Amino acid sequence: MDTNALFIPGEFGVDIFEELERLGYRHIIVLKAVMNELDRLRRELKGKDKRAANVGYSLLLRYLQHNASEQEQIPGRCKVTLNEADVGEMNTDELILEVAVKRNAAVLTIDEPLKRKLTKAGIVTVYLRGKSRLEES
């Protein structure tokens, strides 16, 4: 999941975790770099973008905190874990691509340049379709 994917709930009212579950994804990996980028954006942005960033950040924290508790996961929902991959000199998109290739993992994104890179690397992408649901390509 990239940073802009976490804007989807606040911008379009789509429950990305429910949609990922519908598509068969049971375990969601969020990179620490994505969480840090989202946290920075929610402090810097204004208006509807700030609200969307706050909604995404709150949802992410809810899943991460719930998964860290004694219960394994939110009942009927996918498990979300934080991956603290070594960022080094890489930007967030490069890191997402590297982790996706290593794990052969699909990536949720609405970022077209990242989507093209992922597709070129043979990685399944999940994207917003019709501002109402997620689909795979």
Architecture overview:
The protein has one domain: 5'-nuclease (Rossmann fold, 3-Layer(aba) Sandwich). The radius of gyration is 14 Å and the shape is globular. The longest helix is centred in the middle third of the chain and has 22 residues, at 47-68. It has six helices and five strands, in the order ααβααβαβαββ. α3 (32-44) packs antiparallel against α4. It starts with 7 loop residues before the first helix and ends with a strand. The model has no long low-confidence stretch (mean pLDDT 86). It has a three-stranded mixed sheet with strand order 3-4-5, sandwiched between helices. Strands 1-2 form a two-stranded parallel ribbon. Helix content is 50%, strand content 15%. By secondary structure, it is α/β, with parallel strands linked by helices.
Series of secondary-structure elements, N-terminal to C-terminal:
HHEHHEHEHEE
By CATH, the architecture is named 3-Layer(aba) Sandwich
CA-based gyration radius: 14 Å
Termini separation (Å)? Answer: 15 Å
**Broad structural category:** alpha/beta
Largest sheet: 3 strands, mixed
Summarize the structure.
This protein is α/β, with parallel strands linked by helices and 137 residues long. The chain has helices at 8-12, 16-22, 32-44, 47-68, 92-103, 112-120, and strands at residues 27-31, 79-83, 107-108, 125-129, 133-136.
